[in-house]
Design brief:
The protein is 83% helix and 0% strand. The chain is mainly α. It has one domain (6-441): MFS general substrate transporter like domains (Growth Hormone, Chain: A), CATH 1.20.1250.20. It is globular. The two termini are 32 Å apart.
Length: 442
């Protein structure tokens, strides 16, 4: 690509994701501050943290639909501006409303990073998409390692105020802004390969139904009255799921006349993200009584994830992406069960390590599967998956918070283990569908 500094753009993208990741570690640490010092319940903290996830989804969906219209560079600078505003507002947060608003901007900034940088990485490295997406996403767990260690150092060892910890975000923010400044950023792969916008929409399978589903999920996460109506009924959630499934089939198979691989990947993304991010965001409350600092456990988990993602290329080549995801689900299930019965530092670290291996490849490999097997879904497909993952997490956080308060950490972890069980079945189905598709194309 002429006049494109591939290395500089990749490093800038990684640092932008680093800012995103450190915000996750900071939230995991300061949730106790807002319950102990500011009087919020864990459910309120879960709801106040929710915008960091559904705001992420909104930005990713908007980016996916409009990135080729407004250009990648615009999305990059929108991310920078939202990050800057969100960090400043977080420093001033003292109650539910101010914490909520700060997380709206942080979520929008984080989502804009993913909306811009996932397709940018694919465009920069068209011959090794999944490998480089995993390399790029090293900086998500890697950033959480850095953030969790900083959190432990700043707040536990040196005993400085939490605002000092948050202020450290300005450093990588300034660096990634500098690296992107003045650079030529190439068009997305969809544009460069000549795939039309209409064809991209069609390859998502059921874009209208999926988008409306995510909007409804955001309402569930943010409007308590809507959530109460749905969760208090034993049959209504099943009816809603059935209606969504029927609408996806009608839109995908009857209207767009295309396979439903992408909607199935979308469904899996909801569960993989909830398994990974829901657990790590509540790590402080889930493991505070296990005799070891939860931030140390978070550093162990995300450190293993970072190493695993860096060396993902060889594993994915041997097993193929769907095989990796199936194995990951089995290990994640074992990890959650082990965490639910772990006691003492050694057992907790070992259980956390198993969990880390399980969730390690979920996020980047899910995006890689879409890019590899539904390539014409383009930037929109990648953005929908990332957005869906985070809005699912915004739903699971208050549910987990309430469960921790009422049933305790062990029962909460045991209940979360149901998600990878569902994923095991889903990935077997996905593997069969992709295998049959390849056989027909051969």
């Amino acid at each position: 690509m002429e006049n494109v500094n591939t290395k500089r753009l990749f490093i800038a993208s990684c640092l932008a994701l680093l800012v995103t990741a450190i915000t996750f570690a900071i939230r995991a640490k300061i949730e106790g501050v807002f319950t102990d010092d500011y009087g919020l319940t864990k459910e309120q903290v879960g709801r106040a943290f929710g915008p960091a996830f559904w705001g992420f989804a909104v930005a990713m969906f908007a980016g996916g639909y409009f990135i080729d219209i407004v250009k990648t560079k615009t999305i990059v600078w929108a991310a920078f501006a939202m990050h800057l505003i969100g960090i400043v507002l977080l420093l001033m947060a003292k109650d539910f409303t101010s914490l909520f608003i700060a997380n709206v901007f942080i979520g929008l900034g984080n989502g804009s990073v993913e909306a811009a940088c996932n397709p940018l990485v694919v465009t920069l490295f068209p011959e090794k998409k999944t490998k480089m997406l995993n390399r790029f996403h090293v900086w998500f767990p890697g950033g959480i390692v850095i953030g969790s260690l900083l959190a432990s150092l700043v707040m536990d060892t040196v005993e400085l105020p939490w605002q000092i910890l948050v202020s450290l975000l300005f450093i990588p923010l300034a660096i990634y802004g500098y690296l992107f400044f003045g650079q030529k950023i190439p068009e997305t792969e969809r544009v460069s390969t000549g795939v039309t916008y209409k064809e991209m929409m069609r390859n998502v399978g059921a874009p209208i139904t999926i988008t409306l589903t995510v909007i409804f999920m955001i309402m569930l996460a943010t409007v308590p009255s809507v959530s109460a109506v749905v969760t208090t009924s034993s049959t209504l959630p099943l009816i809603i799921i059935a209606v969504i499934a029927v609408l996806i089939i009608i839109e995908g198979r009857l209207m767009n006349k295309i396979t439903l691989i992408f909607p199935l990947i979308f469904f899996c993304m909801l569960l993989t993200a909830s398994t990974e991010l829901g657990t790590t965001q509540w790590i402080n409350a889930l493991l505070e009584a296990n005799g070891i600092g939860p931030m140390i456990i978070l550093a162990v988990v995300t450190g293993i994830m970072a190493v695993g993602r860096f060396f993902a290329g060889g594993l994915i080549h041997r097993l193929n992406p769907t095989g990796v995801l199936l194995g990951s689900s089995i290990i994640a299930f074992a990890g959650l069960l082990l965490l639910s019965i772990a006691s003492g530092p050694i057992m907790t670290v070992l259980a956390a390590a198993v969990f880390a291996v399980g969730v390690c490849y979920f996020w980047p490999t899910m995006i890689g599967v879409a890019s590899e097997y539904v390539p014409k879904s383009g930037a929109l497909g990648m953005s929908i998956l990332g957005g869906a993952g985070f809005v699912a997490t915004s739903m699971i956080l208050p549910i987990m918070g309430k469960s921790i308060e009422t049933s305790g950490p062990q029962i909460t972890l045991r209940n979360m283990a149901v998600l990878p069980v569902i994923l095991i079945a889903a990935f077997i189905i996905l593997y069969i569908i992709i295998k049959n598709k390849k056989t027909k194309e051969a």
